Amino acid sequence: MKKLFKRKTAVVGLLITVAVILMAIFAPYVAPHDPEKVELALRLKPPFWLENGSLNYPLGTDSLGRDVLSRIIFGSQKSILVSFLATVISCVLGVILGLISGYYGGTLDTVITRLGDIQLAFPLILLSIAVIAVLGASTLNLIIVFGIANWVVYARVARGAVLSVKEKEYVEGSRAAGCSDSRIIIYHIFPNICAPIIVIATLSLAGIIISESSLSFLGLGVPPPKPTWGGMLSEGRQYLYDGWWVATFPGLAIMLTVLGVNLFGDGLRDAYDPKLSTEKIE
């Protein structure tokens, strides 16, 4: 952690990520307006620094007179909820399968590896579109789809780490002392592979945010009128000339959030990498 906090970019990324999470949690108290309230008289009102803008609507309004800032704030809830829960599901599923595959090997290892290869043959976004088209668009379905679709990378990393750890002396000593397989995996192997798993989970979080926004942009995400960043981009694309702010600010929110998560993830990766010396820390 000392190495992590010595990296300025990692600290900036952590601050951005924490700010977005807090914004999502306290959205009802932070947002100045109801994000779903329609006010046609205020349609396409510009941001406050432009002519006819107002501080009441600092980032302007959309085509239905809804406050853009409030919709961005509430939209963060869906992005954070979907990405976090999907990451947890894929991490738990992938790590369990990877531990089993790497520790026991044999036919079980072959079956799990081949399943991963088959899933990797399908692009994530196309697989998500196909499943959502069948199951229907909802927050729960998005979480399930992204959770199941991302387990392979965790399984592969966990499997590789287990293969390098299970022959260590302390594992052989535990086995000779009569410890069960489950105890060896949980208490002796898993703690030693946590570092790469944490880094991958952090970095994949950003990818899921983009994927969720992409599906919402295509109309396969959370159904309207619930605000989502991708849905706001889709609604605002036809007003790029008359109301550029409708699509611009949600896009900036996505970019800033993904940037923050990636910077923090890169910092974690560098801090956990023993090959990097303290002299290289920025």
List keywords for this structure.
single chain; about 280 residues; mainly alpha; MetI-like fold; 13 helices; about 0% strand; elongated; disordered C terminus
Question: Overview of this structure, please?
Answer:
- This protein is mainly alpha-helical and 282 residues long.
- It has a single domain, classed as MetI-like (MetI-like fold), CATH 1.10.3720.
- Helices cover 68% and strands 0% of the residues.
- α5 runs antiparallel to α8, α11 packs parallel to α12 and α12 runs antiparallel to α13.
- The longest helix is centred in the first third of the chain and has 37 residues.
- The radius of gyration is 22 Å and the shape is elongated.
- The C terminus is likely disordered.
**Mean pLDDT value:** 84
**Residue windows where pLDDT falls under 50 for at least 5 positions:** 277-282
Radius of gyration: 22 Å
The CATH class label is: Mainly Alpha
Oligomer: single chain
Order of helices and strands: HHHHHHHHHHHHH
Helical fraction equals 55-70%
Membrane topology: Multi-pass membrane protein
Main location: membrane
Protein name: ABC transporter permease
Subcellular location: Cell membrane
